[in-house]
Amino acid sequence: MSQPLIEFDRLSVQFATEQGVARAVQDVSFAIQAGESVAVVGESGCGKSVTALSLMGLLPPAPACRLGGEVRLDAANLLALPPAAWRPLRGRDIAMVFQEPMSALNPVLSVGEQLMEPLLTHRQLSPAAAWQQAIALLQQVGIARPEAIAASYPHQLSGGMLQRVMLAIAISCQPRLLIADEPTTALDVTIQAQILDLLRRLQQASGMALLLITHDLGIVAEMADRVVVMYAGRVVETGSVRDIFRHPQHPYTQGLLASRPVPGRRLARLAAIPGQVPSPLALPDHCAFAERCPHARPACLHRQPVLQATSPTQQAACLLLSTEEAA
Amino acid sequence: MSDDTLLAVNGLVKHFPLHGGVLGRQTGAVRAVDDVSFVVRRGRSLGLVGESGSGKTTVGRTVLGLHQKDAGEVRFAGHDLHALDKAALRRLRPQLQLVFQDPLGSLNPRLRVGDAIGEALLAHGLCPREALRERVLAVMASCGLGEEHYSRYPHEFSGGQRQRVGIARALALQPALIVADEPVSALDVSIQAQIINLFADLKQQGVSFLFISHDLAVVEHLCEDVAVMYLGQIVEQGSREQVFGQPRHPYTRALLSAIPVADPDARRERVVLQGEPPSPANPPAGCRFHTRCPQATAQCASVVPVVHRVAAGHQVRCHLMA
Amino acid sequence: MRTYVLRRLLGAIPLLFGASLLIFLVFALTPGDFIDGNINLTPQRAAELKALYGLDRPLWARYLGWLSQLLHGDLGFSLQHQIPVSTLLGQYLWSSFLLALVSLLLYWTLSLAVGVLAAVRPYSWFDRVVTLLVFAAMSFPVFFLCLLLIKWFAVDLGWLPVGGMISIGSNATGWDYALDVARHMVLPVLTLVMLQAGGLTRYVRASMLDALAMDCVRTARAKGLPERVVILRHALRNALLPLIALLGFELPGLFAGAIVTEKIFNWPGVGHIHIDTLAARDYPVLMSFTLLLAVLTIVGNLLADVLSALADPRIRLR
Amino acid sequence: AATNPSAIPAQAKARKDTIVGAISAPQGIFNPYLFSNGWDENVTEVIFGRLVGLDAQGKLRAEQAESWQVSKDGLQYTLKLRKGLKFSDGSPFTADDVAFTLTFLHDPAYDGGTDISLAKIKGGDAYKAGKASSVEGIKVLNPQTIQITVTEPGATTLQLIGGPVLSRAWYGRGYQPGKLDDLRQYSSKPLGAGPYIYDKFVPGQEVRFHANPYYFAGKPAVPNFIYRITSDATKLQLFQTGETDLEGFSINADNIEQLKALGFANLNIYNSSDYSLIEFNHNKPALKDVRVRQALTYALDRKKLVDVVYQGYGSVATLPLSPVSWAYDTKGVNPYNFDPAKAAALLDQAGWKLGSDGIREKGGQKLVVTLLATKSLFNDALIPIAKENFKRVGVELRPEVSDFNALLAKRKAGNFDLATFRTSGLNDPHDGVARFRSTENEVGYKNAQVDKLINAGNGTLDIGKRKAIYHQLYQVLANDAPLILLANRKLLYVNSSRIGNYQPDVFNGIFGSLPKLKIQY
Amino acid sequence: MSVLSLRLPWRRRQAELASLASAGRTPWQQALARLWRNRPAMLALLFLALMVVACVAGPWLLPWDLETTDALAANHAPGATHWLGTDFLGRDILTRLLHAGRISLAVGLVSVVLSVVLGYVLGALAGYAGGWLDGAIMRLADLLMTIPSLPLLIILGALLSELQVAPEQRIYLVMLMLSLLGWTNLARIIRGQVQSLRSRDFMLATEVLGLPLWRRLLVHLLPNTIPTLIVVATTGVAGAILNESYLSYLGLGVVPPTPSWGNMMDTANSFVDFQRRPWLWMPPGLAIFATVIAINVLGDGLRDALDPRLQARGAR
Ligand SMILES: Nc1ncnc2c1ncn2[C@@H]1O[C@H](COP(=O)(O)OP(=O)(O)OP(=O)(O)O)[C@@H](O)[C@H]1O
Ligand SMILES: Nc1ncnc2c1ncn2[C@@H]1O[C@H](COP(=O)(O)OP(=O)(O)OP(=O)(O)O)[C@@H](O)[C@H]1O
Ligand SMILES: [Mg+2]
Ligand SMILES: [Mg+2]
């Protein structure tokens, strides 16, 4: 395998909060190759966004937030960089699209101005050239009257339009990696389809890698090459999209797949996962899923499983899969 | 209309006035609900689907009498709901309940959940004070909540548990109809399934639902009848099999095809609708869908389509059905 | 936008009438009048004078008289100063305005700078010190502060004049005049800035904290913009919106005259004559002045709304 | 006297040709007959001067008038002006101007503070009522002589008619009887014949003057004079830093010590002509009883009050008069020394018996008295002391503090038992007793004998006779206790030792020595 | 915007998850716990408690009488007999200070209670009833706000002094005056809150449940406005204490011989006393200063404690 574009190596993130330490991300390791689409799925609060933000250097500064492990871009550890050295990477090498386009854009600046900013900062274009480029970018994301839209303010546009604008901003400096953090959650299905389409086209056109964060398995199936399943701050399973959907190994992944009603395939009851996600303030030292796991054994309440390869392309972190347990 | 009709909505219209000008006079209206008719039968559930802003919530609230209607009729169990006086409406309340989308927001943060569930029972004299706790615990149990939850505050629950509390509160009054407005959209995937199962159980016990959702899969899972809304109007309604099996309206089809399928090999061609829904304050003339319809004709832009019955119980509001 | 302004203007009219009535009643009900205050008058002479000034007319007649006078743009005649009220206010208003304007500019600048810095590093030692100072400044009784400043800077150190607006007998013009006034202004301005900056700083800080927590600030950072740009262009612009509204509310304050400060520093402003005119029950002056402030409040409110609407595209381009 | 003139602040020393006096709140009405506050009066004194003034003992003194004669019956006054008298613009100052001034004061539209009717000039009422085109009693005999005929003799008449004079040429332009507007506009452009000429009023700051070359006693030596506006809070600081040369302070040991410590201050301490008092509302049944009034007077420890407030620079008032006056004579006048036992006895006699709560009562009525007061340092001491003293004899005092205007309004409405204030400066003994005359008394005091004596005192100009009359009057008044006399205070005027020839007195303030001032450092 | 409602905003969920960790406590207990952890606020509370205890109990324990004057002991500097010295009438400063504390604190408290009652009732009424009543109440508030408060206070002071009241009772008038002016702000805030609460889902739920009106108001609506009320009221007390001192300076406040911190400080107005007898004005000055700071800090802490989402917000 060639040198990955991005590599998370035992990343852990802790927040100091009023109620105690929140262990948002623990020991997360995975890599993204150039041009690859990786999806991170998991329930709310399992650390998806925090993982992505750690890559952008957008987490709050210490002591509110403590980082461990490494995040490497082209083999250079980003976490060791001073903030000033990190800044030029943002927006140029790595770009990010957020969940709520409405609040992600500045309400007092026009869309065009916001679109020009990275061009002026990273590509040192003249304002006039940046404006031209901004128009071109809007056209590229399928906006019909780019001049008019560039001159308008976020509140004048619909959610779908704004998400297109966000995408235009993200791709403006031809990043090598685009992080899309639940880019369509706030949108209607029909608009979601448009945005996913667009995302796919852009990726194909520019060859950038995509880190797609979502809780919707349908989107994962449509968009990703590889999937990372997270639960309570840890990676519980990772593998190619086919591996994950065809033979999920981890009971959590299995549960997730089974708990969605599938159109046209109606069951009397869904296979719900009982219980609830543990609070990041009170994570157990053993497998965090043990309490909800239908297959849990006594050992699960004592040990923390680690990721193990179950096939050349797939890994899962479950004691049930470990060889010694099987023995 | 047969005997088993629980709720009949006929030609319902609800406009929200828009004010403007120097003197603040009414200058227009958001036509949130425009001529909507449907029926919910006893023991069955109607799923109301549609995109954001299509008027689903407004329908639900007008049905509950929380908004004054502008035209049409809402008959619930034989009563004309909007013609009732305050006291009569209050007496009817237990029959007709609501479950909200945001479970935290729908619970008073300063009230123990046991009290929240029980207070309406007391208020309606449905249960003597001495028996209240038992009764509440029973309802809570049927929603998967234990005795230990009785005297906790809403903030001490997880999202799914809160939604259970919300459902238990509605259920305690033994309603005939529950309007559930996107009851699972705010929940995590694994929790969603728990709540969906709970609804399925309740249906077993004979409660009817007006189930509002933008999630077609959930509606298909739970509802026998389905109505699809677009810009304040129902564009297609029928049984689950009709609407999901043989969708006739181009919008329904587009909607169905837009759902991402959790199967990496099922990468199919789909109808991607262009553009976005117009504003309900200024809906397009003719067929409201014609601006986005892949099959629109010149007629669609000018003539308002009527409702066509394409099969027994299957109605479509589209010129193509003519 | 235009209809909005028009609508607000229309709404201000009944408010103005209400204010004029309220002001009139309040003053009419105050015990004593201009004549009562003169201990040397014989009862006959007092009655003569009351008739001369119309103070013996019934309430409603006096109100209507005043109102019609106002509608003709006439503020009346000062009983005590024997000149038209407008002339009298003109003599004192502008020095109050000067003092208020300078301190306004200063404390806004100061509060903005300090508030933003404190918000950028919340709970840092800088923030804590600022918070402490702000609370301290907010907790000083005014007159106490004035006297302290005079003692330190004017008497003990002798750096600055004790009071007044110009040096005695000064005939300076041009730059010399400006410098002279500036020297006299230092202490009163310092007082006003200290009193006002505290609250405003808290407000700026809170508003800035809100703005910094906005998603769009995170987006700006994600774009790789320099931190300075993120804070000044993205966060501050949003934080300023509610502050702009506040700026409108300052309008009446610019003309109200700081009563205690002006009194102690002998500043020839309206705050200074306010107490005197009240003691003398010179109602034409008091009523006109109070009404002027009411009008300014209403205008300020309007201005605040219009300004923040102009600054916020979400309202401007509705 | 100053101990260390070298301590004069540099700022003051640098002012070679200017003297800075202090003033509190002039309003810019610089017309001696139209101003409405005493500070404007101070300004007009400088600009206008007077025909007849007062000396340091309060005796009449010739100023712009060279001499005067009063007829035997006291009904005819003849004033002779100095020769060559000029207004400050160089125009002649004649008897015609005096006539103009006195006639103007009878204008029906005149709303100023001077009540010319007190002079009872013959034909004055007719003129005021519009029944005559001139005042009969005013007669210009020649450009230097004017004769005034009055209908009643009055001890204060000469002061009234011998006041500041308005130039007919200046103020009479466009003046129509019945309309003051034209005349009023000259209030901000005054023209007089006083020692200094008005330059400029900077509102809230200062009033500027320069020396009048036509002043009858010769052009003052110091070219410029400024009245600087000061306030209680900072006047000491201003004086200390040399911004003012002349200043008045409230008198107490502290101020005196502080000022002495400055080294360069000359302290001038003299008796003031006013007195402070507590007035009884004679319409209240309880206070109609002279024993109650006397009791309350005995009950109040006025000595303590004076000591606390004036710290040795004031005295308990025994007469309604300044101790400096020629009429001052306390012999045989009850001084009402502090005597709670006597007070209690008097109250007992009057039928007010001690109740169980320590408050006296009579017929179910408690002896509770309200006291109207303004907020002042004096009252800050008076109220607690009076409360304590009265309590001791079984009387409850309820103070009500308001501003002066409200106090007078309430007093007029009669809703009070006691009211305390200080009189304005009194030039003549008559001024101090006029309030007891039943025609002028506003609080229900009536005593025919008092009325008779007051009229007699005012009806002659013979000082010897008047002295006897007043002495008798004071004894009668003391027994009647129509009010509680509180204190005669001293005044403290200070000048920087760089100013020479400064001799302020109670009747003239700084004005008396203003023309003679010189700068010595 | 309806699009945003599909999923709960991130921050809300964060609070949701965090609150799971604090299970088992009522919202009030939680707030108290948060307050307890706030060190400056607890110090402020401690200080205020001490102040109240000293002011209430102090005058009884001290040997001096409040009003007895003693010309011989006038203007004594602090010493063994008079710990904080005496004033120009020989009255003990400490006794007066503590007594004044009762009055100043009472003025602060009572005027705030009055304005809170007025503001709360009117604000809640306007917010809940809407329509013309809302219009009328809010126009009244607008009107009061257009009139600058100081002239109004001065006039009210003069006007109210017309009523025959003893100075001991005059302070009630001062309180009344302060509260008559102070209610509008709170009314606005409460009105806004009630309006937003009214459209919250849980209020809608009470209607669907068919709960009687009194229950909807008293159990559901109003208790949720209490935190705001507490915060506004707390900082209001600080403002009222300062205002009283200001009014006293202008001669409109509490009238001597009844002492208040404000009128005790008035002696600083004489330059000599200011320069030479700091014991006359320092104690009341510091008392005002420290009390106002403490109340403000406590108010800040309460704000944080009662509404964590508003954390670190200031108010003007
Ligand atoms: N700034 C912060 N301070 C404290 N805790 C934080 C902070 N940011 C995130 N967390 C915590 O870290 C955990 C992971 O959060 P994260 O936002 O990564 O979840 P997520 O998987 O993106 O969930 P969602 O689907 O809701 O976006 C959460 O429990 C959250 O409470
Ligand atoms: N109280 C109201 N006043 C004015 N307009 C309203 C009001 N309630 C809803 N609307 C408008 O009516 C239209 C329909 O809203 P409604 O909430 O019924 O849609 P919905 O289908 O429930 O959407 P969502 O999926 O976002 O919940 C929208 O355009 C909305 O803005
Ligand atoms: Mg996230
Ligand atoms: Mg909805």
UniProtKB/TrEMBL annotation, chain A:
Matches recorded under InterPro entries = AAA+_ATPase (IPR003593), ABC_Ni/Peptide_Import (IPR050388), ABC_transporter-like_ATP-bd (IPR003439), ABC_transporter-like_CS (IPR017871), Oligopep_ABC_C (IPR013563), P-loop_NTPase (IPR027417)
Q: Carries keyword Transcription regulation?
A: no
Q: Name one Pfam family in it.
A: ABC_tran
Query: Major location, coarse class?
Result: membrane
Compartment(s) where it occurs, according to its Swiss-Prot or TrEMBL record: Cell inner membrane
Q: Which SMART domains match?
A: AAA
Looking at the keywords, is Cell membrane present?
Answer: yes
Q: What name does the UniProt record give this protein?
A: ABC transporter ATP-binding protein
From TrEMBL, chain B:
The organism sits in which domain of life?
Bacteria
Keyword list (alphabetical) reads: ATP-binding, Cell membrane, Membrane, Nucleotide-binding, Transport
SMART domains the UniProt entry points to:
AAA
- Tell me the ranges covered by the ABC transporter domain, including all copies: 7-256
One MF term from GO for this chain?
Answer: ATP binding
* CDD domains, alphabetized: ABC_NikE_OppD_transporters
Q: Name one Pfam family in it.
A: ABC_tran
Q: Which InterPro entries match?
A: AAA+_ATPase, ABC_transp_ATP-bind, ABC_transporter-like_ATP-bd, ABC_transporter-like_CS, Oligopep_ABC_C, P-loop_NTPase
Extract the NCBIfam families matched here.
oligo_HPY
From the Swiss-Prot or TrEMBL record, give the protein name. ATP-binding cassette domain-containing protein
**Origin organism of this chain?**
Vogesella aquatica
From TrEMBL, chain C:
Pfam families, per this entry?
BPD_transp_1 (PF00528), BPD_transp_1_N (PF19300)
Q: What is its main location?
A: membrane
TM segment ranges? 97-120, 132-154, 185-204, 240-260, 286-311
- Keyword annotations from UniProtKB, A to Z: Cell membrane, Membrane, Transmembrane, Transmembrane helix, Transport
Where does it localize? Cell membrane
Where is the ABC transmembrane type-1 domain positioned along the sequence? 93-304
Please verify whether the record's keywords include Cell membrane.
Answer: yes
Q: Which InterPro entries match?
A: BPD_transp_1_N, MetI-like, MetI-like_sf
Question: Does the record carry Repeat as a key word?
Answer: no
Tell me the membrane topology, using the record's own terms: Multi-pass membrane protein
Spell out the family assignment given in the record's similarity comment: Belongs to the binding-protein-dependent transport system permease family.
Among PANTHER family, the record links this protein to: DIPEPTIDE TRANSPORT SYSTEM PERMEASE PROTEIN DPPB-RELATED (PTHR43163:SF6)
UniProt protein name: ABC transporter permease
What organism is recorded for this protein?
A: Vogesella aquatica
TrEMBL record, chain E:
Q: Give the superkingdom in one word.
A: Bacteria
| Protein's membrane topology | Multi-pass membrane protein
Coiled-coil features, chain-numbered ranges: none
- Which coarse location class applies to the principal site listed for this UniProt protein? membrane
**Keyword Transit peptide in annotation:** no
Q: Which UniProt keywords apply?
A: Cell membrane, Membrane, Transmembrane, Transmembrane helix, Transport
Q: Which residues form the ABC transmembrane type-1 domain?
A: 101-299
Transmembrane stretches in the record are 41-62, 103-128, 140-159, 171-190, 221-242, 279-299
Q: Please give the PANTHER family that the UniProt record associates with this protein.
A: ABC TRANSPORTER (PTHR43386:SF23), OLIGOPEPTIDE TRANSPORT SYSTEM PERMEASE PROTEIN APPC (PTHR43386)
Sequence similarity: Belongs to the binding-protein-dependent transport system permease family.
Protein name (database record):
ABC transporter permease
Q: What is the lineage of its organism?
A: Bacteria, Pseudomonadati, Pseudomonadota, Betaproteobacteria, Neisseriales
